[in-house]
Structure prediction request, 573 residues.
Amino acid sequence: MKILVCLKQVPDTETKIKVAGDGKSLDPTDVKWITSPYDEYALEEGLRLKESAGAEVTVATVGDDKAKDVLRNAFALGADHAVLIKGDGQGDTLATASILAGFAKDKGFDLVLSGNKGLGGDNSAVGPMLAELLGYAQANVVVKLEITDGKFRAEREIEGGTEVVEGSLPAVVTAQKGLNEPRYASLKGIMAAKKKTIEETEVAGHAPATGTLAMTLPAARAEGRKLEGDAASQAKALMDALKNEAKVF
Amino acid sequence: MILVFCELKDGKLRKPSAEALSEGRRLADASGQQLGALTVGASADGAADAAKYGADSILTCVAPSLASYSSDAFAAAIASAAKAKGATIVLGAATAMGKDALPRAAARLDAGYAGDVTGLSMEGGKLQAQRPVYAGKAFATTGFTSAVQVATTRPNVFAATEKTGPGAMESVEAPAGDFKAIVKEILAKGGGKVDLTEANVIVAGGRGLKSGENFKILEELADALGGVVGASRAAVDAGWGLSHGIQVGQTGKVVSPTLYIAAGISGAIQHLAGMSSSKYIVAINKDPDAPIFKIADYGIVGDLFEVVPELTKAAKAMGIGAHH
Prediction:
């Protein structure tokens, strides 16, 4: 089985977002970059299939030289091949999906894994778009995955529960928290990763179909008031305020 | 035409779809276009509800093979209806199904996609979307260059406004062939409660709850207020047996209820990102310097194990939530 895991480099979740001088993009100053946490679940699932079913795991990302860090990290965790698809970071979901599809289309991947969303654009669209462009089945926001005899059974999160999706490979599956517990890289893995070669390639894709015209920070919420007294009077004051002041009820 | 993909459940139009339709009606009026509603399934029971929210026409795609949800079949049905009607804008709700089918339909239509939008407008004949990015740490205005423009509306943000439209029913062709994937079974876990993303009231707990069992006091308060329970990443990752599905924050659900009560949650940046667009925020914490108080409308400095049961008691005494 051949598996492709698509990774994205994103700002660390504790990053305080600042808007750049152009008024529409992220100010990269002081940003610590990490592999998107959802992509870590995707990679872990690929590595487990490598161990249990002898799958070959290729990782790929669309980005610049800085994005090599996520590929190097994937090598340290156990990926077999890593590919940097050069991109300028200006692509939208359709452009990114078309670049990944262009890269993957002739390579016979049985399974394409990725996070259910990147932490940034938060569109959750690259997975399903990639599935459509490759003509593959899809299962998104997956918390449990079983592969047997060229078929998959995936449990995906829906409102108030999960639903079971079944289909035939090839498929695109996007990971949700809960799918697995990602491993940590071993020192041996980290050392070995330094000697491995990251392939670099360029793939033509669709022109972006959307663009960010402006980015703003949410208006700061004013600090409200503290309710005084013992627990019972605080509770009563709160319910009173919610009912008569905020009119929530 | 503006085409809105509408979800039916138990013979009724789902509320997030009614919200998307209402917003579609507003955009159609602003741009002089027709509003079409599209339903896909083994039956069209409940599709007529779309007329209540202003649909000029109701397109029904009905076939026995569509009884269970299939990403590829539903995406094909949406794209084919959009093409047949020459729709330039395709909307749907940002539900589990909408977020699964509409990006796939967008790729089929060579269209740009804006997910989970909180505002839409027409500018020079093109759609513009306001949407949270970085889980709500920032907001982006997204513009489209593609001929067809696809967006999903975040539940609970747009009003579902009744405005009767002609609602002329018309059946459209169902997708043929073998589906690549299909839903075989639904495993409900929430006991029929609404999802966090659609809840009006959320009572969330953090590390301060000290154990999974202690979430029972939050359940009781949530029940009294007609709400549901959420949790911080710290609580979910603590190994207390809490479901990942109730996590609120940048790596969990992004929510915007009318009321968000945070108990024993200090307010890490990634948590605040997921809930700071709530209308009213209440913080209960022992630590008066906890960052959560900075964004709370009402703060209670105190022991949540004393305060939360008192809140439940006060809510019941005042008859709050009884009408939910």
